Amino acid sequence: MINKLLLLNKKKIEKKVKKGKIKTLDYGHHKKDLSLYVHIPFCDLICPYCDFNKYANVDHMIVDFTSALSAEIKSVSEKFKNYSIKSIFFGGGTPSYLDEYSLNNIYEQINSSYDIDPKVEFSIEVNPTDLNEKKLKLYESIGVNRISLGGQSFEDEILIKLGRNHNSKDLETSLNILQDSYIKNINLDLIFGVPDQTIEHWKKTLDKFLSYSLPHLSAYCLTFEPKTKYFRDLKLNKIISPPENLLVKMFNYNTKTLPKSNYEQYEISNWAQKSFKSKHNLRYWQMKNYRGFGPGASSHVEGTRTKNIRSLKSYIKVLMKEEITEDSFIQETNKNTFEDTMSEYIMLNLRLSDGISHQKFFQRFGYRFEVRFENIISELKKASLFETNDKYSKLTNNGKLVSDEISRKLLQEIN
Ligand code: SF4
């Protein structure tokens, strides 16, 4: 009976569409948006500053990892059948370290399990030594339309300090290979604030970047993360952290130079020319839904954050079993409270050039941001770290240099 009614209703709608009374044949089956992150944890060498979940010298695990990853991708696909995939990001580790066969298998599993939007942004992280014409052809053939190149520096001295497995010539060769590709959406990752790096080193690297006219730059300030070799070396005085005033000079060189070549600082570390902002990363910062696959990968779906098992060995073991449930490979689940969501919203939006929209904040949390945080805002404004108008509150250039401390101050007020 219900089916009959639905059919009658459908026919009525179709008639109205034919007569031009309504425009679409949308029966309310609108799909939600989702991004996919795929974590490939293999690296050729371990860089001393890196705190990602990565492994070197375990090539014998690649085949099993690929099967485990495919099993995870397939196992949750039913749950996401009403979602449309807006962006896919292969990150790591080093996704370009994977051979063509493994990469193709993973892609095929995604393609056969999810509804991918034809306008999807599909990115892959690539290390300069891995790139060659054959790999590039594969990326193009599976629909990759954005490449993020882990260049880090054009100075050999700095690349050695960073423990990278490439030199500046490798980086330039890979950029030349990319220039012949029809993938035009290319990001270069660069690092400043490396021990012993001078302002001249950084200026040369940034100027070299500009000579390639790439549409996107991620310029990260090096941080000394616990559990890294750099952190231990710092504690033992084997390396020295660059002085604050040098970091300010480097950051200011970016903010002075890049806008002249039409780059917009749409996030503290990210610069893009018109229409080349990373859709995938924007979705993280805007707290949209994403599902992460692979060991240690995080997900954020409908207000719940989860984290997969971090150990590569355990991840493979659990996913090679016949019966797989999400509980078996998810290590942490946190349903965000109202306060968690507000804290995250502030922290992430302050990193964006638009800052916090007063209207959106009010709609989401029922508070006026500029009133709720009035005292701190006035303190920060006096110190020239914050600016507000009737629509937005955002960090000034000086504020961007201490964004973490500012976020912490605001979050203390919430908790
Ligand atoms: S290549 Fe990237 S992921 Fe691998 S160790 Fe170096 S920084 Fe970390």
Describe the structure in your own words.
- The chain has 415 residues and is of the alpha/beta class.
- It folds into two domains: 253 residues, TIM Barrel (Alpha-Beta Barrel); 77 residues, Arc Repressor Mutant, subunit A (Orthogonal Bundle).
- It is built from 18 helices and 15 strands.
- The strands form three sheets. The protein has a nine-stranded mixed beta sheet with strand order 7-8-6-5-4-3-2-1-9, with helices on both faces. It has a three-stranded antiparallel beta sheet with strand order 10-11-12. A three-stranded antiparallel beta sheet has the order 13-15-14.
- Helix 2 crosses helix 11 and helix 7 packs parallel to helix 9.
- The longest helix has 17 residues.
- The radius of gyration is 23 Å and the shape is globular.
- The N terminus is likely disordered.
- Iron/sulfur cluster binds next to loops.
Structure summarized in a few sentences:
This protein is α/β, with parallel strands linked by helices and 415 residues long. The protein is 43% helix and 21% strand. The strands form 3 sheets. The chain has a 9-stranded mixed sheet, with helices on both faces. The protein has a 3-stranded antiparallel sheet with strand order 10-11-12.
Q: Strand order within the widest sheet?
A: 7-8-6-5-4-3-2-1-9
Terminal-residue CA separation: 54 Å
The CATH class designation of the largest domain is Alpha Beta
What ions, cofactors and ligands are bound?
iron/sulfur cluster
CATH fold name of the largest domain, please? TIM Barrel
Number of helices: 18
Shape category: globular
| Number of spatially distinct domains | 2
**What is the CATH superfamily of the largest domain?**
Aldolase class I
Strand percentage: 15-25%
CATH architecture of the largest domain: Alpha-Beta Barrel
Specify the biggest β-sheet: 9 strands, mixed
User: Can you count the beta strands?
Assistant: 15
- Into which percent range does the helicity of residues fall? 40-55%
Summed over residues and divided by their number, the pLDDT gives a mean of: 92
* Cα gyration radius (Å): 23 Å
Low-confidence parts, pLDDT < 50 over ≥5 residues? 1-10, 20-28
Secondary-structure class? alpha/beta
